[in-house]
Structure formats: C-alpha cells, structure tokens
Design brief:
By secondary structure, this protein is α/β, with parallel strands linked by helices. It has four domains: 5-88, Orthogonal Bundle (Death Domain, Fas); 107-341, 3-Layer(aba) Sandwich (Rossmann fold), CATH 3.40.50; 346-435, no CATH class; 440-655, no CATH class. Helix content is 55%, strand content 8%. Helix 30 packs parallel to helix 33 and helix 35 packs parallel to helix 36. The longest helix is centred in the middle third of the chain and has 25 residues, at 463-487. The protein binds adenosine-5'-triphosphate.
Length: 892
C-alpha cells in the first residue's frame, strides 16, 4: 500500500470530510466503483449495516480508501471535486425548490397549530378561544422552582417570586409573548431554551401561537419543526432523527437531509411537554451521536439534541411543567422563560373576550376580583376558563357570592388595631369547591337534552334531574381520575375509558368534549386522553371519593360492577384497615383521614387540591349545588351538619402535628377554608392576640410554618389594616412567607426582628407591589446595616405610599445616610424619617442636608444619638431654622 500526499490528506482531514461530504457518499461510491478505485466487496462493506447512516458510511469509505492506498485516495479527491461542481450548478434551482417546500411546510404546520378549541360551551359563547397575551419572565441559564409546593399554588407566587429574584440577583425580567417570539424566530438564538409553567398555564397555547406567527411570516427563513414528548413516548424502537422527521413531515422528505446537513442554524425544533416524557434522559452516559441518520433510542436522540451533538447550531424550545425542568442539566440551558400566567389586567381581558356578553364579563370579574383565593388561581388560564364557565351562568354561585361581598363591604370601613378588626372580620364563604361544582353543573346542564329549547336559566331549574342521570358517568370518570391520582398517571388510553366511550345516553361525550382533551398523536394512530387541567382531575377524583363515602362504599376498592380496580397493594392496605373498624362514622372518618395522610406523605404537594375538594364536598351546602347527584339521605348522618364536626376535628388535629411541613400546613388551612370552618376567623383572632401579648412580654420563637398560616389567614381577611410583629424572631424567610399580605397593611411594624439585608429585599418587593398600601413602615432595630438601607431606599424611590419611616438603631452609618439622601432627592411622599442611634457622623448629616435642598415634602427628621460633632449639630440646627416646613431633631 503506497502512502502519499492524498492518502495523508484522507487521514488528516477525516473529521472534516465526514462533516462536509457525507451527503455525497452514495454518488462518490458509485463513481469510485465505476473507475475501479473500489471493489464490489468495498461497496457492500460501505453500504452494509442497516443502522448505518451517511456519516458512518463516509467513515467506512475513507477507511477503505486509505487501505487501498495513494491511487484510490487521489481518485477520491478527483471525484469529490467533480461532485461539488455538479451540486454547485444545481444550487440555484435547489434554492427555489427549498423555498417552495418551506412555504408548503408553513401552510401545513400553521393549519395544524391553529388554536382549535373543542370546548363547545366556549365556542358557542364567544366563537372560540381568543388568545390573550400572557406574562412571562426570562432568565439567562436555568432556574429551578421552589420545592414542596403544589404547582397550581406556584403561579400566584410566581409574580412575587419574580420580583424577589430580581432584587437578589438582578437578571430576571418580565417579557411578553412577542419578545419570546422574536428571540426564537429572529435567528439570533441557538441551543436549548426552556419554557416552564404549571399545568394549564398556556405553554402549548404559546407553542401554537408561535408556530402560527412563524407561518404567517412570508420572509422567515426559519424551519420550524414541532414534536410533542407525548408523541415521542409512542416510539419504542430505535430510530434515526432523519427517519423520525421524514415520517412526521413527509412533505419535507426531499429537502430534509439537506436542511439537517447545511441549514441547522435556521432550524427551530420545538419539543413540547418534557414533563410527560416517559424515557430516561441520561446526560452522563448516553453515547455521543452526531449523525442524524444513525439509529438510536428516542431518549438518546433527545439527549444528543439538547447537548448539541446532534444538529449543532439548531435552536430548541423545550416546554415543561416546573417539576420536570431539572430533567435537563442547567448548564445546557441557554435561556429560561417561565409562564407567570395572567396578570389581573390580563384576567379581566380574558373574561371580556371569553364570556358571552360584556355584562357577564363584568359580573365574573367583579366576583373574582373580590375573592382573593379565586384571583390567585385565575393567574392560570385554564382556571379562568373554569371560573368563567362556572360563574357566567351560575346564578346560584353569584347570588351566594354577592351576599358574601355585602358582608365583606360592611367590614371594610373598619380602621384601627388588628385584634379589634379581627373580631369583626368575616371570612368569605365562597370556596374553590363551590366553583368547581358550578362548573360541572353548568356543563351538564348545557349539554342536557332540550338544549335548543328554553333558556339556560330554565334548564338550570331542571338540573337535579340532569345530574341524577349523570351519576354513573360522573362516578366512573371520577373513579378513573382517582385511580390516576393514586398511580400518578395523567394520560389515559381508550381502554382506560372503558364503558365511558360507548355510553349509550351520550352523557360521557360531554366529558370527552369539555373535560378530557384528546391527545392527537401524529406519529401513531393511537388515541389517548388527559384531563383539561390537573385540578379537574383532582376535583373529579374527590367527587368520586365523596360519592363513594356517602353511599357507604369504600372509595379505595373502585366502583362496583366495573372492571376498574385499584392497585392490589393499595386495595389490600385500605380494606384490611377498614375491616378492623366498626360503625359507619368511624369508617368515614378513617377513610377521610387516610386520604389526608396519603396526600401529606407526598411532600411535592401532589394531591393537595384533592384534599381541599374532599373537604369542600363534605359540606352539605356545597353539595347542594350538585343537588340530584348525591343520595338524598346519605347513609351517614354525621355528614349532614353544616360542617361535619368530624372533619373539623380531623383537620385541626392534623394541624397540630409537629412533623408537618409549612406547605402542608397551609394546605390544611385551605382545607379548613373549603370546609367552611366557622373557626377560621377565631383562629385569626387568636393569632393576633398571641402576637399582641408576645410583643409585650418575653419574645418566644415562632416557627416558619406559623408565618405561612398567619399569611393564609390574613389573606382571607382583607380588613386588618395594622400588622405589628415586633420582637417575634421574624427573619427574611418568615417575611418571604408573609409576602403575599405584607403590602396590604397601612401600618407595618416589624421592630426588633433580625431582618437584615435579605429581609430588606423582601420588604422592597412589598413596597414596589402595585397593591402596596403601606403608609407607616417601622423597622427599629432590625439589623438593616447600610446594605439593607440601600435596598430599601431603592425600593422607596418607586413607592408613593410610605409617609412615615422609622429606622432607629440600625447601624446605617454615613453610607446608609448617603442612600437615604439619594432617596430624598427622588421621593416626594415621605414626611417623617426617624434615624436615632445610627452611627452617623457630620459627613452623613451633610449628605442629608444637601439632599434636603431639593426635597420640600419631608417635615420631620429625627437624628438623636448619632455621632455628630458640636459643629455638626450647630449646622443641622441652623439648617432646620432656615426651613419653616422642616423640623430636624438632634442633640449632642
Ligand atoms: N394565552 C391564552 N389566552 C387564552 N386562553 C389561553 C391562553 N393560554 C391558555 N389558554 C387556555 O388554557 C387552556 C390550557 O392551556 P394549555 O393547554 O396551553 O396549557 P399547558 O401549560 O400546555 O398545560 P399542560 O402543562 O397541562 O400541558 C387552553 O385550552 C386555553 O383554552
């Protein structure tokens, strides 16, 4: 074998040749065979191996050529030159061909991603779903969500969490959909972008919108390819990326390999729903693969795409629920976006565009905006749909709600000290369970027979009959939802639906249309279903659970006369425990307790809503909304009292448990709220009087979970205007738990707590909140230091409510005085600032006086016990004398 310059080039440039010439391997091999440079055996060696892709074939060819020696390698370079000249000449027509295919691709994908809403109530009322811009936040790299929290609860928190993060690290920003669209379609981004958001927050809707936006841009050269993880789950056999895409996009068949080889920088690959991906993603051990033609498992393919080994240079948009974000190592993610959900203004816009009439929209918005728990949940678009469906015709709920509102209004005028206010405080009586009951009822009634005749109101009168008829369907669907929850399963196939899909009365169609979404997998013909929103699954599971309880059956054994069985392990545990108990009341209590404990064992907050719904449905007043569905006389008389005492006892005894984490404790408070516990108001009063006593006596330690509970109780009661938490060992973490309510007090007194700069960051979030009502902020001896003051001063520049700021004994020094001086130049609201004992010297006093030349609103500045010289004090007094509106208090 002769080695010369050509064979050396083949060896040295192997990687480059594989990279650039693999697409010509077939024609090169032909040419080389025709001129005798390679043999028939060589050809079968190169083309053999069914799994080998172009790159593998190219590598084998180069090895063969090197083995054949200098002449074969020279022939190769010669052939390569002529092949490239030939392909160059067809480039112009190729370009035209590409444009035509691209336009066709845009048309097809645009149509596929039209925002079709199958929800017939919605389409009947508003002509389909209109897209409302939604608030997103973006962040370089990757962020992880807070652990231990139900994802639905995280949405409301996300708005404030965002500002907290902004304060502490300064690189999160809110952004609108348009901006994300531009980043993805402009061609300037590459690598993975993670879009996270809780269930129903609108990720898939954003993806649809993005594809439509791109499809409408005639000049966009981006090639968008969109796949859902749900579909990828169905591919069990190894496959090459090229083959997978060719099957999915058969209309791109002729140009796909060219795009994948030469236009990767123009490709945007959307992978929707990472949370649902069933295959493991092993970023450590998955073998590297850079050949789109090489077969591999779907999991390995996804890993190689995300790592940039496969199709380097493409942009990838991954969407995931928050808990699944960590499936991808953060260092591989270029940009993270979170769907924060609808802001209050966007919620209002949603109702305006999705309710049947402006009056209905106004009613729904009025109701939602006066019920804080509802408003928090309405950050999630899917929940907006549930609420608008439940309320716009749900006369029952609206009547009840307006009564609650009137009572709220009667207490709103109150002013004064928190404990006095709490005595009169009224905790609103509408619950989330009420809303879901109205939702189900509205849907059932809407689809009932005789829909064409009579008004919705008339049909509402007939609802007991409709609901009675719906019993078997609701029970079976509920059983499926419950089984899914226990198994942590959210996707069901046709066999899971069993009789439901063949229901002769057609009632189950209601659910298939309104409540279950069909997963339309393009890669296979198999159908699967999932609930419109996980909260709907949790509600139906709770409905089933309570229906079974009230009819004396064991919810854990599945409905009788049906094939649906729960996991054998679970079934055994629950039924053997049940056998040991006697008497229906004890059995009922036992079963509810089991369900509560079951949920508490799951620290992730999964099943939190289920427990709230169970608590709500055990209240006869709430069940009355679904009159007709429940047995008239439940076997168990203990569930007939307004709020069953056994339920309250159970929830209260769980609340006392010392092993409960704060988030589960808050969930128990939610359960008490759903159970319409009349003692909630008392609990708040108790809390506030304990705090009042504590601040007068020796401070004792307050657990973090207590702050969560207090925040929850205060949230339900908007009428308390003064919050005094002096000397309570309250730190930044405690403040974080209280954050939802902090802006809502006129006077916030947090003296003698170890807040420090981190606590100041929390407070600055409250001060910048659009809901901020804080007028007096008392932070005496809270370890702020100059850094804490700097953070607060920045926030106060944006705030126009605080009039009275007390910050004695905080060691702010001259640096802190300088920050306050800067604040005084900008702020026109503050009237009274107290800075006793803060280690300020003449330098600090000078800075403040300079600023006060520009500020004419400050009336009182207390500077006792600082480190001023005699001359400094004299200067301050003279300055004060010259300014009639300003009183500076100072002594040596
Ligand atoms: N921007 C929006 N404007 C109007 N309606 C919206 C918007 N976003 C979502 N929705 C409504 O909320 C429903 C749920 O949204 P979507 O399926 O996109 O959520 P998701 O985040 O993908 O949920 P999941 O994680 O469960 O897949 C949609 O069917 C749609 O009706």
């Amino acid at each position: 074998m002769a080695v010369g310059p050509f064979s050396n080039r083949v060896r040295e440039c192997r990687v480059e040749l594989v990279e650039t010439c693999s697409r010509h391997v077939a024609s090169l091999l032909d040419l080389l065979y025709n001129v005798g440079a390679v043999t028939e055996e060589d050809v079968s060696l190169v083309t053999g191996g069914s799994g080998a892709g172009e790159r593998d074939r190219m590598r084998t060819l180069l090895d063969v050529l090197y083995g054949r020696g200098e002449e074969a390698c020279r022939a190769f370079y010669h052939m390569l030159q002529s092949t490239e000249t030939q392909t160059g000449s067809v480039d112009v027509s190729g370009q035209q061909n590409l444009q035509e295919h691209l336009q066709k691709h845009k048309d097809i994908l645009g149509k596929e991603h039209e925002t079709i809403d199958y929800l017939s109530i919605r389409s009947s009322r508003s002509g389909g779903c209109s897209f409302i811009d939604i608030t997103l936040s973006k962040h370089r790299g990757c962020t992880f969500p807070f652990p231990y929290q139900h994802e639905s609860a995280m949405v409301g928190d996300a708005f404030r969490g965002l500002t907290v993060r902004q304060e502490s690290c300064g690189h999160d920003q809110t952004c609108a959909f348009r901006e994300l669209c531009q980043t993805l379609l402009s061609g300037s981004s590459s690598g993975p972008i993670m879009l996270s958001g809780v269930a129903g927050s609108g990720k898939t809707t954003l993806v649809r919108r993005l594809v439509q936006e791109w499809a409408s841009q005639a000049d966009s050269q981006k090639v968008v390819l969109s796949l859902s993880f749900r579909e990828l789950n169905l591919i069990n056999e190894p496959v090459s990326l090229q083959e997978l895409l060719t099957v999915h996009y058969s209309h791109l068949k002729t140009i796909l390999s060219d795009i994948l080889a030469h236009k990767t920088q123009d490709v945007l690959l959307i992978l929707d729903g990472l949370d649902e991906f069933g295959f493991p993603l092993d970023f450590e051990r998955t073998p590297k693969c850079s050949d789109p033609e090489r077969v591999q498992t779907v999991g390995a393919m996804v890993v190689n795409l995300i790592k940039g080994s496969l199709l380097p240079g493409i942009s990838i948009l991954l969407t995931a629920r928050p808990h699944a974000v960590s499936k991808v190592p953060p260092q591989l993610v270029n940009l993270s976006c979170s769907v924060l959900g609808f802001s209050p203004a966007q919620q209002r816009q949603y109702f305006e565009q999705n309710c049947g009439s402006p009056q209905a929209a106004e009613k729904v918005w009025g109701f939602v905006s006066s019920h804080k728990p509802l408003m928090l949940m309405c950050h999630i678009p899917a929940f907006c749909w549930i609420v608008s469906t439940a309320l716009q015709d749900g006369t029952l709920c609206l009547k009840k709600g307006s009564a609650a509102k009137n009572q709220d209004a009667s207490t709103l005028g109150m002013r004064g000290d928190a404990s006095k206010e709490a005595k009169n405080a009224h905790i609103p009586s509408i619950t989330i369970t009420d809303i879901y009951c109205c939702f189900i009822k509205t849907i059932m009634v809407f689809h009932a027979e005789g829909r064409e005749e009579g008004s919705h109101f008339n049909r509402l009168q007939d609802s007991p009959r409709v609901l009675e008829e719906a019993y078997p369907v609701l029970r079976d669907l509920g059983a499926l939802a419950f089984k899914g929850l226990l198994e942590r399963r959210f996707l069901f196939d046709s066999s899971d639906l069993g009789d439901l899909s063949q229901d002769s009365a057609g009632l189950s169609r209601v659910f298939l249309v309104e409540i279950l979404k069909e997963n339309r997998a393009l890669l296979t013909v198999e159908k699967s279903f999932y609930f419109l929103h996980t909260s709907v699954q949790e509600y139906l599971a709770a409905l089933y659970f309570v229906l079974q309880l009230l009819s004396g059956s064991n919810p854990f054994s599945g409905p009788k006369h049906r094939t649906l069985r729960f996991p054998p392990g679970l079934h055994k545990v629950f039924s053997s425990a049940a056998r040991k108990l006697h008497g229906p009341s004890r059995l009922l209590r036992h079963r509810v307790k089991k369900a509560l404990l079951w949920s508490q064992r799951h620290q992730s907050g999964y099943m939190d809503l289920f427990c709230r719904f169970v608590s709500g449905l055990l209240v006869p007043q709430t069940r009355f909304i679904l009159q007709g569905l429940f047995p008239r006389e439940p076997r168990n008389p203990c569930v007939l009292s307004p709020t069953p005492p056994f339920l309250l006892d159970l929830l209260h005894s769980q609340l006392e448990s010392s092993s409960l984490c704060p988030e589960r404790q808050v969930n128990l408070c939610h359960c008490l709220y759903e159970a319409k516990d009349p003692g909630l108001t008392k609990r708040l009063q108790g809390w506030l009087s304990v705090l009042a006593q504590r601040s007068q006596s020796e401070p004792s330690s307050v657990f973090q979970r207590d702050w969560s509970e207090l925040a929850f109780l205060l949230q339900l009661n908007p009428d308390v205007s003064i919050l005094k938490l002096d000397s309570q060992h309250l730190d930044a973490e405690g403040l974080c738990r209280l954050l939802p309510v902090l802006p809502l007090f006129c006077t916030l007194s947090l003296a003698q707590n170890p807040l420090g700069p981190a606590g100041a960051a929390m407070l600055s979030v409250a001060l910048q909140s659009p809901d901020c009502r804080i007028e007096s902020l008392w932070l005496v001896k809270t370890e702020l230091g100059c850094e804490g003051v700097r953070i607060l001063a920045e926030a106060l520049k944006e705030n126009s409510t605080v009039v009275d700021l007390r910050m004695a004994i905080n060691q702010i020094g001259d640096v802190g005085a300088g920050c306050l001086a800067d604040l005084l130049k900008a702020n026109r609201t503050l009237k009274d600032i107290r800075l006793r004992d803060n280690q300020m010297t003449d330098r600090g006093a000078d800075l403040l006086m300079t600023a006060l030349h520009e500020n004419t609103t400050l009336q009182c500045l207390w500077l006792f016990d600082n480190k001023f010289s005699k001359d400094g004090v004299r200067k301050l007094k003279e300055f004060s004398k010259r300014r009639s509106h300003l009183d500076i208090k100072v002594c040596v």
